[in-house]
Design goal:
This protein is of the alpha/beta class and about 350 residues long. About 45% of the residues lie in helices and about 15% in strands.
C-alpha cells in the first residue's frame, strides 16, 4: 500500500484543522501553525468550521484576511470526521497534516512530520500523545494519561517510544493514501482516527510514531468532563468493532468486561451469597490495584499532592469507558440504533 514520496522539498503541504465553537483557542492554535519553521516552501491551512455560533467564525475570517495561506470552509456536519473530510477534499497539497485547536505545537512539528514520512515510507506518521496542564485536576489527569494502568499500555501514550504503532496522535499522510481508504468514517463522532488507522493497517499499511514530532494536548480539567469523554470513547468503540468484526486491540474490551462482571455479580449477590463475596473481592482488588498505580504515578515528591485524587481519575478512565462501552452494545448491537444525542455532543477540554 505504501507509495513513498520522492523528496521532502517537492511535496506540497495542506494542514487541516477541524473546529467548532473554539473562540478561546483558535487564534493561538493558528498562530502556532503559521509560525512553523524548517518547512521548504509554503503550505496552506484549511480550517473546517462546524458552523460555529460563538464568534469563532469572525476570528477565523479576521486571521484569514491577514494571511492568505488560511482558507475557511464550511463543515455542516459539525463533527470532526465530516470536517476532516471536507478539508481533505478541498486540499491542494500532496501531503495532508492534521492539527487541532486544543494543542500546542513545537516549531518544527510540520518539518518533523515531513522528515518521518519521507524517511520511513510509512502510510501515516505522528508523535506521542503529550499533555499540558496547569490546573490541579488537569495535572492529575495528565499524570494518569501516561500511566499504563489507565490506558492499557497503548504506545501512543508513551512519550519516548519510536517505532510502528496501532495509531498516532493526529497524523500526516499522502493525500492519495487517504483517498484510497475512503477518508474518515463520517458516522463516528469519536474514535474516527483510531478507525482510520485500523483500516490503514488492515490494508497492509504502516503507522510510525516518533518522539521528534511533538505536540501538547490540553486534557480535561474536571472529573465530570473526563468521565464523559471516556464514556464517549467506549461508546463509539463498539461501533468501530461492530463494523470491523474484531477489536483493534484486546485492551479495548477490558473495561467493558470489568463493568459488566461487577453488574452481574451485584445482581446475583441479591440472591446468592457467594456472588456477594465475589463482588466485594473483585472491587477490593481493583481498589488495591488503583491505589498501587496511584503510588507509582505520584512517586516523585512534586506529584504527591495528586495522590488523593488519582484513584478517582483512574476510575473515570475505567468506569467511564466501561459504562460507555456497555451502552454502545445496547444501542448499536441490541437496539440497532445509529447513536444517541448524549453520546454525540463532544466534551471540551476547558482551561489548562
Amino acid at each position: 500500500m505504501t507509495d513513498p514520496i520522492k523528496t521532502r522539498p517537492e511535496a506540497e503541504i495542506s494542514v487541516i484543522v477541524p473546529c467548532r465553537n473554539e473562540k478561546s483557542y483558535i487564534e493561538s492554535a493558528l498562530i502556532s501553525i503559521i509560525n512553523q519553521g524548517g518547512v521548504d516552501g509554503t503550505f496552506e491551512i484549511l480550517v473546517a468550521d462546524g458552523m460555529s455560533d460563538d464568534g469563532t467564525r469572525t476570528v477565523l475570517e479576521n486571521i484569514a484576511d491577514r494571511d492568505s495561506r488560511i482558507r475557511v470552509i464550511d463543515n455542516p456536519g459539525k463533527i470532526v470526521s465530516t470536517g476532516l473530510n471536507a478539508a481533505i477534499k478541498a486540499a491542494k497539497g500532496e501531503i495532508i497534516i492534521r492539527m487541532d485547536c486544543h494543542t500546542e505545537y513545537a516549531k518544527d512539528y510540520i518539518a518533523q512530520c515531513m522528515d518521518a514520512l519521507t524517511q520511513t515510507g510509512a502510510d501515516n506518521v505522528g508523535g506521542p500523545a503529550l499533555t499540558l496542564a496547569k490546573s490541579y485536576m488537569g495535572v492529575a489527569n495528565t499524570l494518569a494519561y501516561h500511566s499504563p494502568f489507565s490506558v492499557g499500555g497503548a504506545k501512543f501514550h508513551d512519550p519516548d517510544y519510536e517505532g510502528y504503532v496501532d495509531t498516532v496522535t493526529y497524523g500526516c499522510w499522502k493525500k492519495t493514501t487517504l483517498l484510497k481508504i475512503d477518508l474518515f468514517d463520517e458516522e463516528l463522532v469519536r474514535n474516527q482516527d483510531d478507525e482510520l488507522n485500523l483500516r490503514i493497517r488492515r490494508a497492509g499499511g504502516k503507522i510510525w510514531q516518533t518522539p521528534k514530532i511533538r505536540s501538547w494536548y490540553y486534557p480535561r480539567s474536571s472529573l465530570k468532563a473526563l468521565f464523559k469523554q471516556y464514556m464517549q470513547y467506549g461508546y463509539w468503540k463498539v461501533r468501530v468493532i461492530q463494523k470491523h468484526k474484531l477489536p483493534a486491540s484486546f485492551r479495548h474490551l477490558i473495561p467493558g468486561g470489568f463493568v459488566v462482571t461487577l453488574l452481574i455479580l451485584a445482581v446475583l449477590s441479591l440472591f446468592i451469597q457467594p456472588a456477594a463475596w465475589a463482588f466485594a473481592v473483585l472491587l477490593a482488588c481493583y481498589a488495591i490495584a488503583s491505589f498501587g498505580a496511584s503510588l507509582i504515578t505520584c512517586r516523585q515528591p512534586i506529584h504527591w499532592q495528586y495522590l488523593p485524587v488519582m484513584p478517582l481519575v483512574f476510575g473515570c478512565y475505567h468506569f467511564g469507558y466501561g459504562i460507555g462501552f456497555l451502552r454502545g452494545v445496547f444501542d448499536f448491537v441490541i437496539l440497532r440504533r445509529r447513536g444517541t444525542r448524549s453520546f454525540s455532543t463532544l466534551t471540551r477540554a476547558g482551561k489548562p
